[in-house]
Amino acid sequence: MKEDLICTNCPLGCGLQVTYDKKKIIKVEGNTCKRGEEYAEKEIFHPERIVTTTVRVSGAAVPFLPVKTDKSVPRELCFKVMDRAFGARAKAPVKAGDIIIKNILDTGADLVATRSLKKEKNNA
Amino acid sequence: MTREVQALVIGAGPAGLGAALSLKNAGIEDILVVDREDSPGGILLQCIHNGFGLHQFNEELTGPEYAERYINRFRKSNIDLLVNTSAIDIIADGDKKTVVLLSEEEGLMEVSAKAVILSMGCRERNRGNIAIPGSRPAGIMTAGFAQKMVNMHGHIPGKEIVILGSGDIGLIMARRLTWEGAHVKAVIEVQPFPGGLNRNIVQCLNDFKIPLYLSHTITNIKGNWRIKGVDVASIDKHLEPTSEDKFSLTCDCLLLSIGLIPENELSLKAGVILDPVTRGAIVDVNLMTSVPGVFACGNVLQVHDLADWVSEEAEYCGKAAALYIQDKITKGRELPVKTGNLVRYVLPSRVEAGKEAILSLRPITPAKDITLMIKSEKKILHKKKHKKIFPSEMLRIPLKEIPADAQYIDVSFVWEEK
């Protein structure tokens, strides 16, 4: 099988032509350094992404709290992480780094707050 | 109310916060920062994606996290901050600059300062800036506005989205809206190369198989009350639409990610002269504008692609402004910086003999295997080969010392003979 990728290790963004079978990479072309091969291996067999989104928060001056997965999660789980985050609710006060959902979808990653929000008196 | 301070900083985004902290570190005590929003942080607060801080903190942060690092330092330093306050006028009168501020709580205020730092950021180019033909229905907005709607207010601007322009905010919103359940049909880019960073092309478009049409533009917007669709056409080398590749897309939302303009209306009121290329102030090596004592940094000076560089520029600006306030700033012999081959602009456009300088520059087009050469008429000051250069990636080059006898500095991209 063949696939074209763009390496994101550095701003060069080498265009990679990757040949692979079910189990392993057979050939990577187009890379200008070793990291291109590692990138191709990871992207083809187990690509991961950090998910950033928002959850509803009560008691703060704003209605939404920005959150992220504190580690990257398998790319194919991103939409499920979004669904799970959609149902979550946070309550002020919140500190950046506070865990909103622990070990989300058993990925080993926690969904954590990325902004600190104070409790507002007239917004219980 | 009237008040006098040593330094007034306009805008509390990454540029304003960075500059204020730098002023404080340099021994300036009497600083006032104003911001028109209700909390500091600026546009970073709506940029909830990651990718910030790799240069400043050596780790990958989201926009709000990056902002919070600076906000925490700022709070600890006890610098005075006025929020919900707009600066509406600057009157420059020699050593004294008077800024007119307006807030709901305090009404009109006049604050005079020895140094004013402009750090108001930039705003997005809109439909009017590029005159797209067609009707004027609802559902057309800038990508950054959509970002604010989604991330701060929880509203989704549409279900079927077309994005014009491949700037980073547009790419980020393509992913954000896809994750939120919308169908992003295409990104249309007039240039033959993408406007945004590589990692955003990969992770925001390719991950979701969103097509990117390079060298294409929108020739018509359709729909009466709500946008119903757009006509797309390929363009020739004069950027004129051709009939070669024409197609239509239905959509209920069109996002525009077609560039940013430094927000300089206030600067103009102070008499600051602007550069027609960067559309920010013309500054000297201290980032001081044409009005003595008025400095500029961040996106109001030049549109950056990384917040990290904004922070760095702001720190440099704050240091220089502190020297100005302490009457310690030295003015050496100035010489021009020439923009040579393939260079769109260099900032600052003049430097001082015998002094250090940090040059920011961008190429006109992408190029491969090219050498950046910075030299005076006698001496090479910087020479580095680049495998690839992109207009979307600003280069920042520190120069230790401009030769004392230099008459000019030339910045060019050159192909070296093999």
Helix content of chain B: 10-25%
Q: What is the helix content of chain A?
A: 10-25%
Biggest sheet details of chain A: 5 strands, mixed
Rough shape of chain B?
Answer: globular
Helix count from the secondary structure assignment of chain A: 2
- The residue-averaged pLDDT of chain A reads 93
Mean pLDDT of chain B: 95
Count of β-strands of chain A: 10
Q: Class of the largest domain in chain B in CATH?
A: Alpha Beta
CATH superfamily heading of the largest domain in chain A: CPE0013-like
CATH level-two architecture of the largest domain in chain B:
3-Layer(bba) Sandwich
| Global Rg of chain A | 19 Å
Question: Biggest interface in this structure?
Answer: A-B, 28 and 31 residues
CATH architectural designation of the largest domain in chain A: Roll
> Class by helix and strand content of chain A?
alpha+beta
What does the model show?
The complex is a heterodimer of chains A (124) and B (418). Chain A is an alpha+beta fold. Chain A is built from 2 helices and 10 strands; from the N terminus they run E-E-E-H-E-E-E-E-H-E-E-E. Chain A folds into 2 domains: 2-45, no CATH class; 52-113, CPE0013-like fold (Roll), CATH 3.10.530.10. The model of chain A has no long low-confidence stretch (mean pLDDT 93). With 418 residues, chain B is an alpha/beta fold. Chain B has 3 domains: 1-124 and 259-331, FAD/NAD(P)-binding domain (3-Layer(bba) Sandwich); 126-256, FAD/NAD(P)-binding domain, CATH 3.50.50; 333-418, Immunoglobulin-like, CATH 2.60.40. Chain B is built from 8 helices and 27 strands. In chain B, helix 5 (168-179) links the parallel strand 11 (160-164) and strand 12. In chain B, helix 1 (14-25) packs parallel to helix 2, helix 1 (14-25) runs parallel beside helix 8 (307-325) and helix 4 crosses helix 5. The relative contact order of chain B is 0.13. The interface between A and B is medium-sized, with 28 and 31 residues.
